[in-house]
Amino acid sequence: MDKNSKIENPAEPLIFERSSAGRVGVEPPCLDVPDIDDASFPQGLLRSDIEGFPEIGEPETVRHFTRLSQLNFGVDTGFYPLGSCTMKYNPKINETTAALAGFAGLHPYQDESLSQGALELISELEEYLVEITGMDAVTLQPAAGAQGELCGMLMIAEYFKEKGETRKKVLIPDTAHGTNPATCHLAGFDVVRVQTGQGGVITPACVEGLMDEDVAALMLTNPNTLGLFEENIKEIADIIHAKGGIVYCDGANLNAVMGLMKLGDMGIDVVQLNLHKTFSTPHGGGGPGSGPLAVKGILEPYLPVPRVVKKGDKYSLDYNKGKSIGRLKAFYGHFSIMVRAYTYIRRMGPVGLRSVSELAILNANYIKERLREDFHLPYDRTCMHECVLSDKFQNEYDVTTLDMAKRLIDYGYHPPTIYFPLIVHGAMMIEPTETEDLLTIDSFIDAMRSIAREARETPALVKGAPYSTKTSRVDETRAARTPILRWIEQ
Ligand SMILES: *Cc1c(COP(=O)(O)O)cnc(C)c1O
Fold first, then answer.
1. What was the pLDDT predicted at 267?
2. Residues with CB under 6 A from ligand 1
């Protein structure tokens, strides 16, 4: 065979392009209810056919999606140290409980008397999260972290409205996740930037200088996105409270403090949790997630409806909360993610949850210490559950964080979060999570050191990576802004 006859492994076509008329993939079961005549439906709503719907047999459908799944990288295929995202292993028992027929088959309009088990689970999960955070009440309604933030900021706006105050500003540290300023803007607030101090945390002096009676809230993340604990939190909270403000904590990093300390004890008034980070169910595919909001008593009246209430041993839904911000999400939130988080919490228990945080912190510090000679540490101090490195040493050879992230793919690892937080030039944010064993972490460290050596000795090799994937470097901005969703014959 000469090299021109080499068979290229073709890209997977769209399922629509595999379609051919008349093929059937599904045989619906026989009717188990009386057949009714089409004439009883409004004629305008009936159709005989769905235009462009793919017609394809079952085996080809299964193969198509299985092939696509093999192009993916997931926590079940390899180490996924994506900082801030907590891509931890998802115990399979979570899937078993979420698939129980009584949960999976439950209709959201089912009568309360027939959904007591689901309401009990919601109510108990709220109680567990109250206990873990040290707050007074929890809503499970928000669909993800960002919506939990929005829920919190809308409640804060309502709180000040009722007090007859028109506070317009929210203080946000410059290390914040992009959703924080976006949320505040959406809720009608102006964002004021709080500059991170030398030690990688915000200082009471800086907050004091910015705080006035026009500030509704401080919105900070603890531990912050540099993986550092905001050690001045109590003092800072006191400064905010003294002028009537609210302290909002982005709780996406709860993975580092669970069982070790309670956010409620630090002066925090409201915090969103990301069940799909801290409590397994990692969300690499884009969802669904769940972003419960935990609040102190002063904000409780504004929680979204319906609330699950318990009278005697019966659970019901209460829609009549006069001061509530209303509904945030259809029905009651993403119930199946709640079942998974509930299962995870019950399985771990209080001691287990505490060891999650301890091991997450240990793993991140171990990586940081073993990589300190090969990579620059912009904030060289003990970290929490993630560590941030930079490409400063490699820039000398014209190798950047992006190049090294791409090269890691060839070594079989998902790259860490890169170029975030924004205040670190060429940041690499590594979050190993507690679920990785020493062998995996050591192999990852070896890969990172090997890439650092390649950067010194053969920089062009690193700059051309990845070599092991179907596509190499794509224009990521254009791919996101103007995706080409059609299969183009080349
Ligand atoms: C993930 C994350 C968010 C947003 O949460 P989503 O569930 O993705 O909406 C907000 N803040 C921080 C620090 C995060 O890591």
1. 97
2. 84, 144-146, 177, 179, 221, 225, 250, 252, 274, 289, 291
